[in-house]
Amino acid sequence: MYTEYDYANEPIVDIVNDMIIDAARRRASDIHFDPTPTNLIVRIRVDGELVLYAKVPEAVKKNLITRIKIVAGMNITESRVPQDGAIKLKVDGNDLDLRVSSLPIVYGEKIVIRLLDYSDTLSKLEALGFSDTNLQKIMKAITKPNGIILVTGATGTGKSTTVYAILQYLNTISRNIITVEDPVEMKIAGINQVQVMSEIGLTFASALRSILRQDPDVIMIGEIRDNETARIAVRASITGHLVLSTIHTNNSLTTIERLVDMDVERYLLGSALEVIISQRLCKKLCPKCRSSRPATPYEKRVFKTALGMDIENIYKPVGCASCYNGYSGRIALHEVLLLNQDIRDAIVNNVPKEKIRDLIYQSGNTTSILDDGLLKVINGLTSFEEVLRVIDIEDDLGEEQKELKNALIGKKETETNLETLSLE
Are 242 and 219 in contact (CB under 8 A)? Predict the structure, then answer.
């Protein structure tokens, strides 16, 4: 992964171009340029993990940062305040949008380039890794004429990809679809897309109020960020509109709690919510080199406790020329809650959190993200270590899992540090 450039003889213009194109070909999602007192550290995020890519000497680091700012349309004379820019380019026939952000730190300007590849965004719902049961729940919800559909998760967990896939399915000539986004990540023919501009007062809430006078069938709100947007979205969904949106929560239970905290009336929330799709992204095992290994006694206990299954063998990463450390790409772990009448009544009647938790997870109607992850481990799509990395399984199975998870992560960090030291 570490790459050497001839900074003394090769033009900075070519070096910057080569770095961006190489990162795109390696399927990187971000490029980080971190200034230090002696050089510029370049790291790329591949399959969710930052890895060391290059070190730019002190003599040329300022020129390299300036070149990035020029092609991104940023002010090269201003280095004291954060700036945003954008770059468009084509790599191997694919159109890429690059979002560039600068941040002044004590050793100079830190630049982060986000590479947006919309090829996955154009995927159909069937291609996003949903189990048959979860896919059936989503299809049932999105074919209803009204209600609110929420996709939840942290930043960078593929929420936009899932929302756009739903919009692609709903995008027919018979539907008036309007979106409010910040930013509009991908322009789709047949869909009316509104770009939020807070500086002139065009916020999610103000745009949403105007959209309701545009005779919409489907409304997509890029993100529910505040109380007013949440209340308008829920009210829109019970007045004959299908509303899609995202929110930063971890799972179905915390999503309900978050919306209540946003002062959404319980009787409206209980009526409006149709489905909550929670997801995480973890690294996908390379199908070319993965190999089977015996499950440890601890892993067997986890599978037995969570799934009630006796598992003897699972897959592990190996590593080959087609992947990075045994992983290639990422896969989503899902939890899909299709609300039933018991859960709606519990929300409206303000029953204790523990009761709602039982209705969601103990009734057998919802497969938790942990369970979905473990099933994908069994099917060889990801590794047990990856599931431990992205899910706080101690919340589901107890404190013992936390100790093992910390031990596994500590071991991985030690290996990564040793690899970094060998490059220095």
Answer: yes
CA dihedral 258, 261, 262, 264 (to 10 degrees): 100
Residue 397 has what pLDDT? 56
Three-state SS letters, the chain: CCCCCCCCCCCHHHHHHHHHHHHHHCCEEEEEEEECCCEEEEEEEECCEEEEEEEEEHHHHHHHHHHHHHHCCCCCCCCCCCEEEEEEEEECCEEEEEEEEEEEECCEEEEEEEEEECCCCCCCHHHCCCCHHHHHHHHHHHCCCCEEEEEECCCCCCHHHHHHHHHHHHCCCCCCEEEEECCCCCCCCCCEEEECEHHHCECHHHHHHHHCCCCCCEEEECCCCCHHHHHHHHHHHCCCCEEEEEECCCCHHHHHHHHHHCCCCHHHHHHHEEEEEEEEEEEEECCCCCEEEECCHHHHHHHHHHHCCCCCEEEECCCCCCCECCEEEEEEEEEEEECCHHHHHHHHCCCCHHHHHHHHHHCCCCCCHHHHHHHHHHCCCCCHHHHHHHCCCHHHHCHHHHHHHHHHHHHHHHHHHHHHHHHC
Q: What was the pLDDT predicted at 385?
A: 92
Residue 220 has a pLDDT of 94
pLDDT value of position 118: 63
Task: Provide the pLDDT confidence category of residue 419 given band limits of 50, 70 and 90.
Answer: very low
| Residue 28 one-letter amino acid | A
The pTM of the full predicted model, rounded to 2 decimals, is: 0.83
215 in Cβ contact with 176 (< 8 Å): yes
Confidence of residue 120 (pLDDT cuts 50, 70, 90): low
Judge whether residue 421 has pLDDT over 50: no
Identity of the amino acid at 165: A
